[in-house]
Design goal:
The protein is of the alpha/beta class. Helix content is 36%, strand content 15%. The chain is built from six helices and five strands. Strands 2-1-3-4-5 form a five-stranded mixed beta sheet. Helix 5 links the parallel strand 3 and strand 4. Helix 2 packs parallel to helix 6. The chain binds zinc ion.
Length: 177
Amino acid sequence: MPTGSNVLREASSVTASLSMNSPEQYMEVALAEARLAAERGEVPIGAVLVGSGGEIIARDGNRTIELCDPGAHAEMLVLRQAGRLRGNYRLPDTTLYVTLEPCVMCAGALVHARVSRLVYGAVDPKAGGVVSLFQVGQDTRLNHLLAVEGGLLAAESGTLLKDFFRERRTGAGEGKR
Ligand SMILES: [Zn+2]
């Protein structure tokens, strides 16, 4: 499987034909996207959308700074890529793997897209929208419910985030916000 920043733009098409099967493997792909995000100076969060046959439909990491877009969270970018690839904004029978518990925006987008299942890594007690602060995918007032599982490779995800913010505080990175 290709790694390295030079394959980033082609990542979704390159990996479209690859099939894996364990949740840990998909989360490792999401973690790889999170590491690439950190290299770009973005908060290290990565996401992968997987189809019912186990195929990776789309993968990406945070790009809010690069795109000057508050909506450019990893989950949003993956949903947009997948929607374009499938020619449909609805993405039923898919599972989204993301390294950190989604915020309310992303949780809302998962509901809009009719994603079936969400698997996240670390919890986000400050901004989490599916378990911590709100339970967007599990609110029966909304017309779609999301199966939610958390804690997969949470330590790896948490360490990436902690290291990133520690480096920024100590001035190793060029803080932009
Ligand atoms: Zn988000």
